[in-house]
Write a structure and sequence with these properties.
The structure holds 3 protein chains of 3 kinds. By secondary structure, chain A is mainly alpha-helical. In chain A, 75% of the residues lie in helices and 0% in strands. In chain A, 49% of the residues are buried. Classes of the chains: A mainly alpha, B mainly alpha, C alpha/beta. Chains A and B meet through helix 1, helix 3, helix 4, helix 5 and helix 7 of A and helix 1, helix 3, helix 4, helix 5 and helix 6 of B.
Chain lengths: 279, 266, 350
Amino acid sequence: MKHYKKMVYPYVAWISVMVVAPMLLIMFYAFTKDGNAVLDFVFTLENFKKFFSDTIFISVLGRSLKIAVITTVICLAVGYPAGYFISKCADGVKMKWILLITFPTWINMMVRTYAWRGILQDDGIINKFFGLFGLGPVPMLNTGFAVVLGMVYNFLPFMIIQIYTSLAKLDTSLLEAAADLGANKTKSFLRITLPLSIPGVLSGITLVFLPAVSSFYIPEMLGGGRYYMIGNLIETQFLTTENWNFGSAVSLIMVIIIIVSMYFTGKADKTEIMEQRGN
Amino acid sequence: MKRQNKLSSKILMWVLALFFYAPIIYAIVFSFNEGKSLTNFTGFSFQWYGKMFRDREMKEAVFYTIVIAALATVLSTLFGTVAAIGLSKSNKGLKFAVEQINNLPIMNPDIVTAIGLLVLFATLHFKNGFGTMLLAHVMFCTPYVILSVMPRLRGLDPNLAEAAMDLGATPLYALWKVVIPQIMPGIISGALTAFTMSFDDFVISFFVQGNGVSNISIIVYTMSKRVNPSINALATLVTVIISVFLLLANIVPSKIGKKKNLALPA
Amino acid sequence: MKKRFMITALVMALIASCFSGCGGAKEKLKLYIWGEYLGEDVISNFEKEYNCRVIVEYFDSNEMMYTKLAGGSAYDVLVPSDYMIERLINEKMLQPIDKSAIPNISLLADGVKNMGYDPDNTYSVPYFWGTCGIVYNKNNVDYSDLENEGFGIMKNPKYKGKLYMYNSSRDSFMIALKQLGYSCNTENENEINEAYKWLIELDEATEPVYVTDLVIDSMAQGEKDLAIMYSGDAAYVLGENENMSYYTPACGTNIWCDAMVIPTNAENPTLANKFINYMLTKEACMDNTLTVGYTSPNAEVLAEVTAEGGDYAENEAYLPRTYALDEIYHDNETIRRLTNDLWTKIVANE
């Protein structure tokens, strides 16, 4: 079988160019001065200083974290009971629910997010419904509410599936044994089900938090430019204001924050997260 | 008490289903709207479909989305499978390093991968367009293929290929006849993942697009700035394509099967 | 399973082929232009007449166009704005147009010829032009507020939550500088900082939504009462919604012109010149201006659509009022970087 060893070499070359080199380039830009000349670069911490010395940039970071945390909490609050419910269904019904929840994720997320614009407008279907009771119109589009809603909409299925998977793995004989020993439902949930589902919860949190904190098209599409997040800041630096150095520094800061928050969910099963992101 | 619990969870589930499907249904309904409004349904018409099929930009976007997804799937599946087989035979240090780097594009936020590639292509003086988009897609799809092939290789009996070669098979023949068939389920699920990742991608494509080459997500994003019900027609079309794809590829049972496998203690 | 996958691949390939346009070995022209900036039939008519294929790509800011161009993308014709053309000329990224191939240049209205960014039209041929001003709802906005406050109406708390700002550092700083009585081409950092403070105050006082093209349909549907817009987009809005009108303050505003240019790395400059010539014909100009709503550079078209009974006869935005203090914008790299940085902070401000 040693014959096949060499088969990895092309891939090593490929990831060196396509994965490692871009990361090094981002670091290079982040620590050099504005001006794009690769040859006469000057090492500097200016880009980081610029970010941390300005309350506006700090508040962009704060806002991104806030929206990502709110999104994660809502997804957890809704996703846990949903995952729990599915895991308790009969086998056939179970699959139907899983299918029902995963099917929309196969459809282009941009297309699905766009549809929310029509629904949330001042004369949209929700406000028309409120209008029947003489209420509203309640402005929803271009608010923080719309941004959080868009994120929950996009990322909630990941949470449900993660929690469902961890609950489905649960050995039901444990619950039976607990019942035999006289534990009531609440007690056996708190003592057995909940602790055993923690890995699923943690991977779910990562799967929601990670894309939420770095998103830029959801705030742009549903937040109307008033909900400027760190992803928008990075995008503007690269695509409009041409300050690649500052943009690189901001993305490095974001990556570090993500690494730190991942550390707290360190127990999460990374492979499963990856498999899930791929679905 | 118990029944009430059951009822409230059922209500929760149906509300969730409504939440997930409302925008899709909304888009489909308004794609048949006669007027331009996205909020008032004034009458039934096919005009936005006509407009979509006349709109060259939209047609090209659909074309490039499918072509790039197909090419990226084939290339990343081949590349990823070959790399995974090689990786399973590599020494520990190399294996660890490659696996870690392989995880980077998966764990990094899309926008970081995207700007990395933008900067890379600019540094290499590559012209943004079909080539850069395809390279980018192969780059982010391959790690998923490797990830789904590796577990299969771990479970493979190393003596089988050896035995085949002892019996006179060339290494290539042994690979083709002995190794590949056994890891086929992993390859297929990797290919499916690659296809959907590529088909759905917005962020990375958005940064490396150019020279008239874009995809469905990009044009929906750029066109969404103006009221344009053709986007709803496109959404309906995408929904139909994906549903047909799911039915044909029979992903439904295999996906559920996969979930079942996950559900069983390994 | 393998077979099924093959079938699927085949079906996908079939679907894909349905969507592929005509391939062929026709001559190709790559056009990079603003979104929603072309008449309905101009491209297909040009393709028929010259038996070629036009590949159109859209940008939504000059800066995005520049990034792409600098990133190595090759186009045959670009349609950027005045200041960007000036920058491209300075950076030697444009080639002179071939005036012998563009006889229709004589059809241009006098006002758009030889503007400051390209004094002899050596590199550029005007495509659309106009001003930047305020679109307002006649029923909900006091005209006296507009007259008294000019661009300052945008920070009048009376209209809080009812307005759109254009998400562009250049246009926003232009408004602030003009309102403060400075030139929009100032190089004085104190004046720019003053403008920055003015914009931050505006952001806090009226909480505007920062948008780009989204503003057009939103205003046409009357979703907000005030918006900073280009005159051409305004003309479209006014045509759609009779409650809307257009105002340019006496403090002066920015007169702009978007023009066709040929980059140095163009692959087909001959066809590019033919294209530019074609886009100046009465037929093409008419289609463009009627579809898009921007002010035509063609003198004859201009006269026809604004004459009594013309499509834009009573449209305040189509042929905008101009003032002595109006200016053309010039590009200055240091100032651009400074205002871009400040603008990032303004939109990011909560």
